[in-house]
């Protein structure tokens, strides 16, 4: 129904109203995906990923409509993705803090791309919790890979598990509602700098 009006403000407001009725985890997952896709289409001249092309890929897999014909169904799905990408800031109520964080990330990426001797963030520390969040964390350098962090955790005094066990690092957000296992060679800097800056501080 939101697509039945030509007024962008009214259409985006209706999208916002409907999407905010979704379960919180589903809403934030869609929000993050649309944030990513809106960034992708910014560089369409380079990656050829125009908003129309991206919508054709993601529309049928993300949405289902009650149209009688497959053509109409696909058209509605693609149109919805186009609206969510073009109206991302309005539909998902992007805050000024998020805008600042996004600008910081873009500036950092630009600086890294144009400066051969870019300053590294090796000195930054990130807290790591063993087994569960409630216990006392220990800090590790942000440039370490997941498997290196596991080795440091095992070597710590008081580690009460077999040292030759199979351990992994998990990124946990939304108070435990979402979690992701880091690959052994994935550096913490990728998670902290590329992901966490766009989430509220209490989410990670």
Structural class: mainly alpha
Spatially, the strands of the biggest sheet line up as: 1-2
- Helix and strand element order: HHHHHHHEEHEEH
Q: Which fold name corresponds to the CATH topology of the largest domain?
A: Phosphatidylinositol 3-kinase, Chain A
Observed structural traits:
2 domains, mainly alpha, Phosphatidylinositol 3-kinase, Chain A, two-stranded antiparallel ribbon, two-stranded antiparallel sheet, 51% helix, 204 residues
What is the topology?
Elements: H1 8-19, H2 24-42, H3 44-47, H4 51-62, H5 70-86, H6 88-91, H7 96-114, E1 125-128, E2 138-141, H8 146-155, E3 170-173, E4 178-181, H9 188-194
Antiparallel strand pairs: 1-2, 3-4
Organism: Ancylostoma duodenale
InterPro entries: Arf-Rho-GAP_ANK-PH_domain, Rho_GTPase_activation_prot, RhoGAP_dom
Domain Rho-GAP: 1-92
Detailed description of the structure:
One of its GO terms (cellular component) is cytoplasm. This is Rho-GAP domain-containing protein. GO terms for molecular function: phosphatidylinositol-3,4,5-trisphosphate binding. By secondary structure, the protein is mainly α. It has 2 domains: 115 residues, Rho GTPase activation protein (Phosphatidylinositol 3-kinase, Chain A, Orthogonal Bundle); 72 residues. Helices cover 51% and strands 8% of the residues. The protein contains 9 helices and 4 strands. A two-stranded antiparallel ribbon has the order 1-2. It has a two-stranded antiparallel sheet with strand order 3-4. Strand 3 and strand 4 form a beta hairpin. The chain is elongated and about 65 Å long. It starts with 7 loop residues before the first helix and ends in a 10-residue tail after the last helix. About 3% of the residues have low confidence.
């Amino acid at each position: 129904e939101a697509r039945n009006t030509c007024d962008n403000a009214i259409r985006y407001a209706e999208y916002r109203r409907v999407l905010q009725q979704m379960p919180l985890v589903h809403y934030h997952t869609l929000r993050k995906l649309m944030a990513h896709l809106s960034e992708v289409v910014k560089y369409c001249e380079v990656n050829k990923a125009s908003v129309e092309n991206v919508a054709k890929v993601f529309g049928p897999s993300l949405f289902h409509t009650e149209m009688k014909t497959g053509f109409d169904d696909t058209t509605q799905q693609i149109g919805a993705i186009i609206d969510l990408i073009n109206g991302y800031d309005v539909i998902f109520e992007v805050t000024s803090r998020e805008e600042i964080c996004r600008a910081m990330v873009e500036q950092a990426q630009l600086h890294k791309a144009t400066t051969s001797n870019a300053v590294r963030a090796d000195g930054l520390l990130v807290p790591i919790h063993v087994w569960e969040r409630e216990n006392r964390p220990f800090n590790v350098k942000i440039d370490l890979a997941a498997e290196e962090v596991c080795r440091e955790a095992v070597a710590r005094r008081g580690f009460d598990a077999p040292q030759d066990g199979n351990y992994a690092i998990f990124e946990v957000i939304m108070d435990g509602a979402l979690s992701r296992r880091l690959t052994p060679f994935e550096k913490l800097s990728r998670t902290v700098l590329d992901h966490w800056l766009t989430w509220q501080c209490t989410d990670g």
